[in-house]
Amino acid sequence: LINVRKNLFEITPYAPGKPISDVKREFGLTDVTKLASNENPLGPSKRAQQAILEALQEVNRYPDGGAVLLKEALSDAVGIPTQQILIGNGSDDLIKLTSETFLNPGDEIVVPSPSFSQYWFGAKLMDAKTVAVPLTSNFEYDLDAMLAAVTTKTKILFLCSPNNPTGTYIREEALQRFLDLVPSHVLVILDEAYNEYVTEADYAQGIDFLKRGYNVLVMRTFSKMYGLAGLRLGYVFGPMEVLDAINRAREPFNANMLAQVGAVAALTDLEHVEASRIQNRAGFDQLQSGLSKLGYTVVPSQGNFLIFDTGLDDRALFDALLREGVIVRGGTALGIPGYLRVSIGLAEENERFLGAFEKVVSSIG
Ligand code: PMP
């Protein structure tokens, strides 16, 4: 143990949403609703499932380490050359790879706060420093403050839009201004894990800026709208030289065969995507109006989740909801004490959450 790098002891392993099986066992429940990990409640596309079943017969073979077919499918879908695409074992993998590629001990990254914790993890792993810049009081980006946080040591600046856990997003004009002002030694990474859920027209699409020559990485995933979280597949669009560098740190077979095959099929299943988007908007409206009737104000969200201020101890609420068989995320662990983050589920799941929440609030408040 004596030779373990010191910074590793400052890392607490990621605490994901509690698994359904744990809650069933712990509370002796048979029916548990999980609205904790921003998954697609409609499940994976049928087309993806079929393709995965067929590919099962070939898992004695290694996957295509270069993910050629998937890159071609993504290239066709968005109009970016395959050399500007890299595939990861989830976007978690790509965040880690990018950190390993660019960060030396003592370097800095700039991140919004609250936001996704893996940016901090990548930096910590490399012994780099995370400079966290708070969102405004209504959870909007303070891009000027993020610019002001950049120093000569800043290597990477992360933006997450829509932002997890707040659901707020960056507008086109704001990103344009920001990218024009950010110093050229800083690599800007736009994490667009929830991109497919966005319905607002002024949302800044990172890929448009990449196409116009900006030095920006755009990360996306098949874990959310495409419903393939369990298979682990993320991808990133970026300038060729930057991806060439990251590719050198990549494991040879970091994206597995079933994930690649499932992703190619899922990309063609536009009906599933559209159904998921519609279901998500309806679910948001349902949760918002249900919570509003109980006296709570939801933060407008462009993701497949929402947050709201409970005015109570979120940890106590989280525990009480677990006993009712409903798993959500407590705000304390996400950097927003008192808030709950609820993933948008099917109508009956949202209803169950609303009922359970109304019940437990009276016992805690
Ligand atoms: N970025 C954000 C903003 C996320 O919320 C998540 C999932 N929690 C990820 C990246 C990681 O996604 P993946 O499953 O592709 O690793």
TrEMBL record:
Keywords: Amino-acid biosynthesis, Aminotransferase, Histidine biosynthesis, Pyridoxal phosphate, Transferase. Residues 30-356 form the Aminotransferase class I/classII large domain. Belongs to the class-II pyridoxal-phosphate-dependent aminotransferase family. Histidinol-phosphate aminotransferase subfamily. InterPro entries: Aminotransferase_I/II_large, HisP_aminotrans, HistidinolP_aminotransfase, PyrdxlP-dep_Trfase, PyrdxlP-dep_Trfase_major, PyrdxlP-dep_Trfase_small. SUPFAM superfamilies: PLP-dependent transferases. It is an enzyme of class 2 (transferase). It holds the Pfam family Aminotran_1_2. GO terms for biological process: L-histidine biosynthetic process. The keyword Amino-acid biosynthesis applies. GO terms for molecular function: histidinol-phosphate transaminase activity; pyridoxal phosphate binding. The modification N6-(pyridoxal phosphate)lysine is found at K224. Its cofactor is pyridoxal 5'-phosphate. This is Histidinol-phosphate aminotransferase. Its EC number is 2.6.1.9. Pathway: Amino-acid biosynthesis; L-histidine biosynthesis; L-histidine from 5-phospho-alpha-D-ribose 1-diphosphate: step 7/9. It comes from Tumebacillus algifaecis.
